[in-house]
Amino acid sequence: MSVLAVTGGVGGAKLAVGLAHILKPDQLVFLVNTGDDFCHLGLHISPDLDTLVYSLAGVACPKKGWGRRDETWSFVKTLNDLGGPAWFQLGDKDLALHVYRTQILNDGGSLTDATKEIAEALDVKHSVLPCSDDPIATVVDSEVGELSFQHYFVKHQCRPRVKRIKYDGAEHARLNLSLDLATISMVVICPSNPYLSVDPILAIPDFRKFLQSPNVPVLAVSPIVQGRALKGPTTKIMTELGYTVDNKTVARHYKELLTGLIVDEGDATDCETIMSLGIECIARNTVMRTLDDRIRLAQETLEFGNTLAN
After folding, report:
1. Judging by beta carbons within 10 Å of its beta carbon (0-12, 13-18, 19+), is residue 154 exposed, middle or buried?
2. In angstroms, rounded to a whole number, what is the distance separating the alpha carbons of residues 287 and 124?
3. Which of 68, 223, 237, 249 could form a disulfide with 93 if both were Cys (CB 3.0 to 4.6 A apart)?
4. What average pLDDT does the segment 147-165 reach?
């Protein structure tokens, strides 16, 4: 029986690393957001998949949490000098990965095939699966019109006010065919942005139906700590969509799916309200600054999940 970790982005990758230090490869599978994927300069870019693989491999940039450690930038500098679209920063090492992935796809391989080859080349032992091999695209409906995710997030640096978020293709997407749901004994939703990193996965009909099954505990670690997200545009997006930025909003967002929610110890007073929604809740230190923090929170998450399964 395996734990399925649902993740996307830097925040989710931190807990994922902790889980990978505790659970063996046959005990843990990662299901990763692909709503951020896009084609740039003819290359297939998969930011969340790469962030997780780099993090598990120990080669992620420690300061940014994404991209490669000790990266160089000759390619993007030359592209800029030529007047090309240099708004999306492609490091030289990162570029090689995108070229290789695109070659695999052009040769008839799937995104799952490409991710497996890349992960194995970087000595990642755990299974890292795109949520689907069918295309899913996160689209931000903003005050300046509809923007693909990377144009909103990178090119416009999250400045436009968000009116709505949709996930094109998700309603027809098939859950990754390599994922055997019958082997899953627990689902952990990592502390990723609910609207940008998790919802594209939850929008896949087959997966959402599975999560609504009463047979498997589903727990999440909230990305909100004392009224704000520690990283990324979560706080801004929640505010612009008209939500209060707190754990109770996160609980209501996942209410149809969750068995349990872990909030930060500074938000322990939220637990009573969350439990009134029918969701078990515990408070722990959810701020992960070090590897020890990630392993500790992962252990606490698994222990909580085991109590929910009993």
Report:
1. middle
2. 25
3. 68
4. 94
